User: Which sequence fits this backbone?
């Protein structure tokens, strides 16, 4: 059943817009027409009462073009240096474009470790809230000049999803160089068909996407699907659309059916659970039996030691840990009340047996439901958060 997009957009108060490298750059540098068009449309949306956060790629691509490099550098220092060169020009062009409509901008460069720490996560959230309250447009990018494998988001598609969840945004619009998600790669298959709406992101949807990054960016269509999985699981819709189509943001806001619309789950995931489920990097893995999986997924229960059948990795109390069912499907992530060593000792036991074995029983639950986020594909099919 196709959703009424106009009705969906009518409830949007806070919007995240992500713009990809492939539409922000051209052979001789930045695509100023696109920058000015997107900026103008965002200003129109703000004037209509929306709060808008912009996640913009393009720094590394702009730096590559400005330096005259034949391709994206293979080495990390080279990529970081290119991003440093390009970021200055990118934000200057945005500042000039928004100034034409009386809007000020702020630049925020983030790394994933800034959102892993709960304190930093909340600090970033407070800063963004303040900028929005001042009427300033936040322009957010990954800090490519310092990011390495351990701290990088991976791509701005993922970053845009993280910002959407961080700010409790009502919609994520991902602007790219094709019209949306196709059942085949439209660049190589003439019979490729656009998929206008997706209700549940199953494995076959990821197969459609493939993993074909653009020449200038780091995120291909698969990265966008993964971003859509995160935000829709949290109860927020997302649209992938062609960013250089004339007035695309305004046309989407008017309810026109462009691109691919990803239908959100009915309930919105609480901000803390978004942080647990999508920001924290798991330190280990717990395997649970069918009874425990049913209790967690269908009845929203905590994870007790009696339902645990295996543990992987070494971790301490309070660590984020993924949990899987017997079919090795990831169900979600939670903060553990016991170390991996103690979980191995008490797994399979009833809660009244914990003290006898460990000498104390600080908690009945290995993971309390308040510290547990169900984020796997099964959650989407069952509908529990």
Assistant:
């Amino acid at each position: 059943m196709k959703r009424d997009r106009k009705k969906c957009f009518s409830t949007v108060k806070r919007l995240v817009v992500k713009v990809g490298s492939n539409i922000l750059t051209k052979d001789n540098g930045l695509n100023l027409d696109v920058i000015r068009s997107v900026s103008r449309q965002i200003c129109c949306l703000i004037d209509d009462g929306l709060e808008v956060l912009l996640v913009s790629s393009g720094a590394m691509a702009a730096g590559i073009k400005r330096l005259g490099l034949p391709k994206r550098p293979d080495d990390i220092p080279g990529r970081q240096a290119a991003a440093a060169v390009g970021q200055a020009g990118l934000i200057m062009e945005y500042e000039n474009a928004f100034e034409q409509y009386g809007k000020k901008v702020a630049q925020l460069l983030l790394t994933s470790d800034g959102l892993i720490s709960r304190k930093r996560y909340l600090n970033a959230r407070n800063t963004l809230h303040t900028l929005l309250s001042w009427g300033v447009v936040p322009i957010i990018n990954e800090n490519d000049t310092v990011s390495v494998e351990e701290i990088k988001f991976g791509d701005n598609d993922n970053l845009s999803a993280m910002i959407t969840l961080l700010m409790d945004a009502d919609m994520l619009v991902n602007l790219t160089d094709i019209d949306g998600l196709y059942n085949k790669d439209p660049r190589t298959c003439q019979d490729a068909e656009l998929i206008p709406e997706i209700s549940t992101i199953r494995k076959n949807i990821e197969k459609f996407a493939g993993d074909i990054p653009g020449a200038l960016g780091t995120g291909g269509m698969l990265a966008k699907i993964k971003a859509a999985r995160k935000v829709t699981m949290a109860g927020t819709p997302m649209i992938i659309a062609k960013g250089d189509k004339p007035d695309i943001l305004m046309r989407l806001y008017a309810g026109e059916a462009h691109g691919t619309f990803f239908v959100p789950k009915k309930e919105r995931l609480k901000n803390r659970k978004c942080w647990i489920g999508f920001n924290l990097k798991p330190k280990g893995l717990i395997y649970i039996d069918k009874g425990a999986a049913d209790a967690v997924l269908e009845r929203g229960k905590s994870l007790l030691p009696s339902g645990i059948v295996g543990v992987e990795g070494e971790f301490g109390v309070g660590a984020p840990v993924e949990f899987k069912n017997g079919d090795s499907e990831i169900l979600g992530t939670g903060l553990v009340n016991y170390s991996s060593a103690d979980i191995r000792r008490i797994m399979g036991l009833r809660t009244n047996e914990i003290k006898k074995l460990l000498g104390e029983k600080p908690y009945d639950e290995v993971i309390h439901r308040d510290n547990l986020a169900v984020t796997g594909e099964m959650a989407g099919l069952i509908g529990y958060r």
About this structure: Residues 5-271 form a domain with the Carbamate kinase fold (CATH 3.40.1160.10). Confidence is low (pLDDT under 50) at residues 148-153, 380-385. The CA atoms of residues 346 and 356 lie 10 Å apart. The radius of gyration is 22 Å.
